[in-house]
Predict the structure.
Amino acid sequence: MRRILLALISLFLILLGLYALPRPEAVLRPQSQGPPVGEWVQTSASDFREGEGLGTEITEVDGGEVRLASGERQGSFISVVKETPFPFNAIGSRWVARFHSATDLQLEVRSSEDGVSWSDWWELELDEDLSGESGENWGQLLIVPPSKFLQYRLSLSTDDASVSPALEEITLLYINSQEGPTVEEAKSMVLPQEVTPGVPQPPIISRAGWGANESWSNLEPEYENPQKFVIHHTATNNSTVDPAATVRAVYYYHAVTLGWGDIGYNFLIDWQGNIYEGRKGGDGVVGGHARRYNYGSIGIACIGDFSVADITPQMEQALVNLIAWEADRYGIDPQRESYFIDREIPTIVGHRDLLQTSCPGERLYQQMPRIRELTWQELLAHDPRLTIETPGEGEVVRGEVAVRVTSISPSTIGLAIHIDGEMVAEGKNPLEWSWDTGEYPEGEHLLLALAQGAGGRSTEVSRSLQVDNTPPTGTLTIEEGLDFTSQPTVTLALMAEDEGSGVEEMRFTQDGAERFTPWEEFASLKEWLLSPEEGVKTVGVRFRDGVGNQSPVYTDTIVLDMTPPGGWSDFQAWSQSQTLVKVSDALSGLDKESAEYSLSVDGDSWGEWQPALASGEFITARGSFGQGWIQFRIKDLAGNEGVSPAYLLSEVPQTTPTPPPDAQRLPDLVVEGLSLLPEEPRSGEPVTITVTIANVGQAPTRGGFWTGLYIDPQEPPFVNSASTELGSGLLWYTPGLEAGEAITLTTQEAEEQHSDFGGTFAPGSHELYLYVDAYNPGVEEGLVVESEEGNNLLGPVVIEVGGEEISPEEETPPGDALRALLRELLEILGRWFDALGERLMLGAKSLE
């Protein structure tokens, strides 16, 4: 027993500790999750027997019904009191009854907070939109004071005692929509307001603001531009304390009870002038408020019953503001009548103008003409809306530009277009004008549109535009400007400029074809595949700017050479020191700097490649060669490398060709002149050397030859001696010379790879030699067989260079050099005139 007592005490202490724990605080919901809803259904005889009747009876017909007692012409029935499990503030109703033409049936309900003090009886008014001939009837939603008890009353009458109306079933829905944002809280959550000319958007409480449970909205929105406004009333209390709760009740009743999937109205307005967003979906969404007239109309419900009561001034002003704003946005004239669906009706109508209903109540319906006039005056009191549809703000334009200006406001009576302050077009809405931008200078221009309203107000909208009719300019460079390539895939470097709209696209063509590639985004580099055949390739590009101006075609060329040097022939070897081979390249030509040779003893193992001398179509290798093999290689200017066959070296030198017997028919090369400018150069002073050679023989040279200038050689020059080895000098190559022809060679024309004269002389004496036909490897005579081989050398020519070296700062400017040259010419002319004068005097004396 003691153990049981201890266990009970322990349990008590644990429960006491749990009770002492802090309790969670209530969380204020940001929006309603939906009102609690209940149903009270009476349909059987046993249900009805719970109530009391006078002049009525309850039968078992169809499971149970209430009807007039036999022989009675009037009767009533009061139901039992229903206590609901939670408070409610709205009542919905549905009933099934039988009628005859001589009978009548009326239903009423009342509510109570405590079951003692009751409200008045409220008639369940038939909702004409919902009730039909099937016998099922729907009542208008009732908004009641917060209540916990519910009761209904039935009144029956007949003009013919042989027939009686009967109530077969009644369902009362009690809805608690009080939970959620109050109207004061809801007013802080309005839809974003547009900022444009025209009638301003009034504050509209959003669905989230009034506490819509979006899980009840299961409709896919449909859209259509509105043409009409349909005015309703909710047939509820006119001055509810919390209109936001009424909106939530209407939403539940429409979306869930009636199965519409959402609230039927596009907007609702309370007695304080607050506007509520209704049907979900935004601008142009189709509501569910007037059956087949939903499409193309905006349904606006005034919260309350205006059968005998007037709308408040606040509600009227909010209604006018809302209609004027929507009319201004959609171009709806509130004073017009037009055909709609199946009839001619005004722009603003009551629900009863479309369907058999008393909605929006007689008193509100009588105000329709006033609402139309007030809406028109509201439109006149504001600037008309105005839009420049094309071109866009900041747009760059060219050629013919379509300018379109619209003003959807119904108060607009005229439009005009100005360019840079000058009116160029005027007319009615919409106004379209074709702007020839070619008649305007390049650069920025101001487009201004003007809308004139019927009330004397106007609106201006302007846009800054850039006129650009100038195409882009640019360049195309293939492979950084190379003349040749061995690869068909090349890189194109692209440069393009456009001061107006900027370069955006480019497209390409090849080898003069008229067909271009598709337009692509501009880039500064692009890989390009040349056409496969070797030869000269031309690639063209055309650029396009942001407004469509197209550039001319810019081109560049390159030679595609994929064939290495070849045609190896005429191999010669002599004296174990020099070899010669002929090679050719048909397209890009030989890269002489790349000439090399390699030696092998057995023809299998080869030594390192060594530099060789290339001249014309010949490659010469110099060195100490024993018996064995030699191989040559050289690249062309496209980079293709050609390798010769392996040649067997010979110790037997080749002999000089025997000249033909008729020496009188041979060429004869001589040096005719060697001059320096200036004639007496100073140390470090730039010097231009000019050489004159001539063919004084009886025949052309029939081939090229070399001419060498030797400066201070270690020994007198001879055939095949290099000036750069004996001292310093210059080397020229001449392709050929006709009989009797002379040619002048200058320092600048010398072969750079075989010349090392720096252009200036050091102080002191210098010996100069000039040798024509100076080079022919392996042969003791030159390349040209001449009638006289002993007159090819001139020299030594001794020059004296005085003074110290001239520093760069002391170098003679070009102008000073020109003046010095002119002085020398004048001195020569002076001496010539002196000599001429002396000859004339001698002639005169001889005549005497």
